[in-house]
Amino acid sequence: MTGEVTTVVLAKAPVPGRAKTRLCPPATPEQAAALASALLLDTLDAATAVPGGTVVALTGDLADAVGSAELTARLAGVDVVAQRGDGLAARIAAAHADAAALHPGRPTQQIGMDTPQAGPAVLARCADRLADPGVDAVLGPATDGGWWVLGLRDPSAASALAGVPMSCEDTGERTLAALWAAGLRVAPAQTLTDVDTAADALAVAREVPGSRFAACVAALAGTLAAGVSGVAG
User: Fold this and answer.
1) Which fold has domain 6-232?
2) What is the pTM assigned to this prediction?
């Protein structure tokens, strides 16, 4: 590791009916929230293993979440800030800014809670790229056209995302273009799959054996597989 970085996790409390709703059906809202809870816990394990500190930008009420007690205990060991801003791009920029205020002078790398395969080694490689000469930003593409990690040598550069539509098929391309337009030199991270659908959940779980997420998927494997078969049919 060539330097410390603040890892920022943009997270939503896994409340039934509000978390991982694209998994419903085949999953029930409670099952989808259980998967989201496992995802968040695994993501926190990875983020906190990277030297430099962790900031969780959270939205939603943990008191109503699946796994509330475990999540509350786990979050007690990291900095937690409320998400703020109008729209996802604004919330991402605010999360980088809040992390910079809590940990001045450090680069930031921001992830969501949908890529449990982004373990400590993967995140450490992203952090290392930010320390390379000639690199101002690191962007990791997602297979759905979005992105799963945004690393910034200067956290204030996240303001370049203003106006970039999120959760679209071309969000990754538009984000890269916005970073280039701001004069940033961008290095790519590896491409990963976000967990959005039942098919995603089954595929990603196979990449993270032994994780909470994989165990949760295994318990719901029949339900999720039936949903995938129904879509395929």
Assistant:
1) Spore Coat Polysaccharide Biosynthesis Protein SpsA; Chain A (3.90.550)
2) 0.94
